[in-house]
C-alpha cells in the first residue's frame, strides 16, 4: 500500500523554472493544468491526480484524466477555457514558438506557469523535485525518484555483469565498446535523435551509444550520412511524429546497412522514448534488453543477478 503525503496548505512554495522565472505560490497548488502529457503522468505517479483539473486533447489515453475537460492542444490551449477552470498552476514543456506564445498569454491572465526543459534523466529528476515543491508533495516526489533510480540501477548492474561474449543484438562483444545506435524520429525526410535529447540518455543508460552526436534534440540526416554511420542497431518509433513508418527493410538503400540486413531493428512507442516522463525508465529497460539480451532473463523483464 502506497501512502501519499498531504501537502501543507498554509506555507508558500517557490521554485525557479527552466526559463529562469521564479514561480511563487501562496500555498501548494491544488488546481493544476499540465499542458505536456508526461507531466500529468508524473503527477499521477506521485499520487497527485486529484489536483489535475483538465487535460489536453492528446491526453485522453491516460485513464486518470479521461473524465476531465479538454482545453485544446498543448501548443495552443484555449485561454478562455483554461481561465474558466481557475487553475493555480500550469505546467508546460519548453518547445516551439507556439508553446512560448501560449505561456505568455496565460501569464498575462495572471496564472502562474512553470516551464521545464528535459533532455536527460538528470533534468527529469530536477523537474520531479520542483513539481514536488510546487504541490507540497516533496516526499512523494522523492519516493518516486527512488523507485525510478532503483530500476535504472538494476539495468546498469545487469549490463555491467553480463558475460564477455556475443550475447548482444548484433552478436558482437560490446563489453568494452557499446553498440552504436541510430534512433529514428521520423521518416521519410529522416530525422534522428540528437545529442541534446532524452533519447540520447536512454541509449546511454541502456548500454549503447548514440551514433548521432550532432547537437540538438533532432538532427536531419540524408541517407549517405546514415550509411557512413554504419550503426550496430537501428531503432525507429511510431506515434504522432512518425504515424505510419515503413519498415526499414522495405526502404530503398536502407538494406545496405548491416543492422537492417541482419535484423538488428527495434520498433518502439514514441510516447515511451520521446516524451520524457515515467515511461522513460521503461524505455531504458526495453532498449537494454534488445541491445544486451544475454544480461537479462529471456522470459521476464528482470535483470540477471
TrEMBL record:
Membrane-traversing stretches: none
Protein name: Periplasmic binding protein
Protein origin, superkingdom: Bacteria
SUPFAM superfamilies linked to this entry: Helical backbone' metal receptor
InterPro entries according to UniProt: ABC_Transporter_SBP (IPR050902), ABC_transptr_periplasmic_BD (IPR002491)
Limits of the Fe/B12 periplasmic-binding domain: 31-295
Protein source organism: Nitratidesulfovibrio vulgaris (strain DP4)
Amino acid at each position: 500500500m502506497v501512502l501519499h503525503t498531504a501537502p501543507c496548505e498554509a506555507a508558500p512554495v517557490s521554485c525557479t523554472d527552466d526559463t529562469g522565472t521564479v514561480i511563487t505560490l501562496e500555498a501548494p497548488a491544488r488546481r493544476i493544468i499540465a499542458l505536456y502529457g508526461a507531466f500529468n503522468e508524473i503527477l499521477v505517479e506521485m499520487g497527485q491526480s486529484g489536483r489535475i483539473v483538465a487535460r489536453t486533447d492528446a491526453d485522453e489515453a491516460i485513464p486518470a484524466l479521461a473524465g476531465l475537460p479538454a482545453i485544446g492542444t498543448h501548443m495552443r490551449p484555449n485561454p478562455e477555457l483554461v481561465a474558466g477552470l481557475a487553475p493555480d498552476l500550469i505546467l508546460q514543456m519548453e518547445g516551439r514558438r507556439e508553446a512560448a506564445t501560449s505561456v505568455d498569454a496565460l501569464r498575462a491572465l495572471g496564472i502562474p506557469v512553470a516551464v521545464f526543459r528535459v533532455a536527460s534523466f538528470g533534468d527529469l529528476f530536477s523537474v520531479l523535485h520542483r513539481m514536488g515543491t510546487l504541490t507540497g508533495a516533496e516526499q512523494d516526489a522523492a519516493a518516486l525518484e527512488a523507485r525510478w533510480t532503483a530500476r535504472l540501477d538494476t539495468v546498469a548492474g545487469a549490463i555491467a555483469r553480463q558475460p564477455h561474449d556475443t550475447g548482444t543484438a548484433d552478436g558482437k562483444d560490446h563489453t568494452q565498446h557499446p553498440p552504436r545506435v541510430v534512433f529514428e524520429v521520423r521518416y521519410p525526410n529522416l530525422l534522428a535523435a540528437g545529442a541534446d535529447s532524452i533519447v540520447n540518455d536512454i541509449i546511454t543508460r541502456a548500454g549503447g551509444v548514440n551514433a548521432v552526436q550532432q547537437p540538438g534534440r533532432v538532427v536531419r540526416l540524408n541517407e549517405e550520412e546514415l550509411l557512413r554511420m554504419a550503426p550496430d542497431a537501428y531503432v525507429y518509433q511510431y506515434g504522432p511524429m512518425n504515424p505510419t513508418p515503413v519498415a526499414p527493410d522495405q526502404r530503398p538503400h536502407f538494406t545496405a546497412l548491416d543492422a537492417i540486413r541482419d535484423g538488428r531493428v527495434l520498433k518502439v512507442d514514441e510516447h515511451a522514448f520521446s516524451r520524457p516522463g515515467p515511461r522513460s525508465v521503461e524505455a531504458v529497460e526495453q532498449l537494454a534488453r534488445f541491445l544486451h539480451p544475454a544480461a537479462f532473463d529471456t522470459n521476464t523483464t528482470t535483470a540477471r543477478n
